[in-house]
Amino acid sequence: MARKKLTAPAITAMKRSGERIAVLTAYDYMTARIIDGAGVDIILVGDSAAMVVLGHESTLPVTVDEMVMLTAAVVRAKSRALVVGDLPFMSYQADVGDAVRAAGRFVKDGGAQAVKLEGGVRVADKLRAVVDAGIPVMGHIGLTPQSVHEFGGYRVQGKDEEARDSLLRDARAVEEAGCFSVVLEAMPRELGRRITEMLSIPTIGIGAGPDCDGQVLVVNDILEYTEGRPARFVRIYADAGSVVEDAVGRYVADVKSGSYPSDEECY
Ligand code: KIV
Questions:
Q1: In a 3-state reduction of DSSP, which class is residue 86?
Q2: Which of 69, 87, 161, 174 has its CA 20 to 30 A from that of 191?
Q3: Residue 222: which H helix or E strand, with range?
Q4: CB 136 within 8 A of CB 107
Q5: Is 197 a catalytic residue?
Q6: 23 CB near ligand 1 (under 6 Å)
Q7: Is the CB of 46 under 6 A from ligand 1?
Q8: Residue 2 pLDDT more than 90?
Q9: Which residues share a beta bridge with 205?
Q10: What would the pLDDT profile of 202-240 be if each residue is shown by its tens digit?
């Protein structure tokens, strides 16, 4: 039986039905095929691609053209999951027109069904304008990596009362702007729970505790296909880095020794 394709309204409805939402990033065709088949509800073509695909030190350098190309590859692969494209740094911050045009490119050229923008109160007008253009928007508050320089590093947010109140205002602003869901990144679990209880749209946590309506992780992190120490909230499910290193090491050894190709591997 064909599996029902997920839409933004269907994701919002999962909060009401109490079904938790499984979200993972992907940036290429094959990975998207596998994780879609494995039952992920949302594939986020995150701007983390800047780091794990393109090798930049932060998410800031990736462009709309690069992100749209990756999004199109993921869209070609998926059959059930909702595909969300991540608007990169400076594609929407300056003005509302930029935001709508950038979001439009993800939908028209990339085939995304929704886009994600970072920020709450400060970008509420952009969130609303993209929603008004008929494009479903996922919000993203807390540790928003595009503001890494403002934060002075990748730090847990919402730790004192003032910061908590500000994040509660951001969460309200995202919902009021019409977003269909919101990512909560790196905040105390108690705050993740409060925001989840306060909002009628689903919260998707990444380092925001178990009470969020769903969870998102970077696919390279759960497969240990990355470099550096993983964040505390990452759970590693496989060691793909070692699998690839071992396979490539054996291939190189076979080529060097002349044992590849064998008679059966020749025409
Ligand atoms: O870019 C990204 O991968 C993200 C998520 C991890 C939320 O924004």
A1: strand
A2: 87
A3: helix 219-222
A4: no
A5: no
A6: no
A7: yes
A8: no
A9: 184, 215
A10: 999 999 999 999 999 999 999 999 998 999 999 999 999
